[in-house]
Amino acid sequence: MSLPDVTHPLEEADAEAAFAAILDGTVADEAIAQFLAAMSDRGETASEIAGAARAMRARMIPVSAPANAIDVCGTGGDGHHTLNVSTAVSLVVAACGVPVAKHGNRAASSKAGAADTLEALGLNLDRAAETAEETLADLGICFLFAARHHPAMGRIMPIRKALGRRTIFNLMGPLANPAGVRRQLVGIARPAYVPIYAEAIRRLGTDHSMVISGDEGLDELSLAGGNELAEVRGHEVLMRRVSPEDVGLPQTPVDAIRGGDAAFNAAALLALLQGEVGPYRDAVLFNAAAALIVAGEAHDWHGGVEEAAEAIDKGLANALLNCWIAALK
């Protein structure tokens, strides 16, 4: 099959058909690389992102999840190499009683992705994949290792690596959660793409989601200053700005939460769960508050920050991590 010309934006159905062919292996590698680069140069549209995500969803290995399950993840590729904020947020939010179907992968551009850090903490990733539905039902959390749930992506990885640049595939992953969650907190590394990405989520269907991006290109809510935020409820998209001061948290430079390798990030996450205060905790509280609002567990930012802090300070999030690790041995 030949891929369509992307000089002009594709309709959603045409984008879905093109990515179905790409994922099914009916297109030559060189043609895929040219197609992805051309689309990236022009700038991906909401209809293209939604169509591509539909093709990816149709080929994933799904898991069952409670109707109120949420996901907290970022597109990655922001280049800031921060500590694992969304992984920590997932544990804190799950400790608040919200089922979290955490979708993630190993690091692509950073030193430690969610999978790398969880493995360094002692989580058996093979067992986590095998028992995802069980741990989500029993403990309220699971890790959905993207590499296992999206086998069609296997042949695409070498093409993406050879291109060495961001493509629409960086945007598709969070929109293809194997648990089919309808509530999400999604961080993207490009502030200008927040409304475009929010429109893609609206097209795909959601109960309540937030798309967030720090002004410096962080794929999570940033303590360093302002953040672009799009809130999607059903067919409604509301754009707004939010800063740490708005939720009672201090402004802090990104360097304060600079991460390292998996062992370094795992040690920092453990210290956080055991009560260590500082910028990492503040970043987690900020993002956890957003996730709790998305889940309907908190009514406002201050309430979300307070509930997240309580889950840490009472040892609930740390206990959950220990139970999860023990359950997978």
TrEMBL record:
GO (cellular component) term, any one: cytosol
InterPro entries: Anthranilate_Pribosyl_Tfrase (IPR005940), Glycosyl_Trfase_fam3 (IPR000312), Glycosyl_Trfase_fam3_N_dom (IPR017459), Glycosyl_Trfase_fam3_N_dom_sf (IPR036320), Nuc_phospho_transferase (IPR035902)
An MF annotation (GO) of this entry: magnesium ion binding
Residues of the Glycosyl transferase family 3 N-terminal domain: 8-59
Cofactor: Mg(2+)
Domain of life: Bacteria
Binding residue positions for anthranilate 2: R160
Binding site for Mg(2+) 1: S86, E220
Binding site for 5-phospho-alpha-D-ribose 1-diphosphate: 74, 77-78, 82, 84-87, 102-110, 114
Keywords of this entry: Amino-acid biosynthesis, Aromatic amino acid biosynthesis, Glycosyltransferase, Magnesium, Metal-binding, Transferase, Tryptophan biosynthesis
GO biological process, one term: L-tryptophan biosynthetic process
Reactions mediated catalytically: N-(5-phospho-beta-D-ribosyl)anthranilate + diphosphate = 5-phospho-alpha-D-ribose 1-diphosphate + anthranilate
Chain ranges of the Glycosyl transferase family domain: 68-317
EC number(s) from the headed UniProt entry: 2.4.2.18
Subunit field text: Homodimer.
Described purpose of this protein according to its UniProt entry: Catalyzes the transfer of the phosphoribosyl group of 5-phosphorylribose-1-pyrophosphate (PRPP) to anthranilate to yield N-(5'-phosphoribosyl)-anthranilate (PRA).
Recorded family membership: Belongs to the anthranilate phosphoribosyltransferase family. In the C-terminal section; belongs to the anthranilate phosphoribosyltransferase family.
Entry protein name: Anthranilate phosphoribosyltransferase
Gene source species: Novosphingobium subterraneum
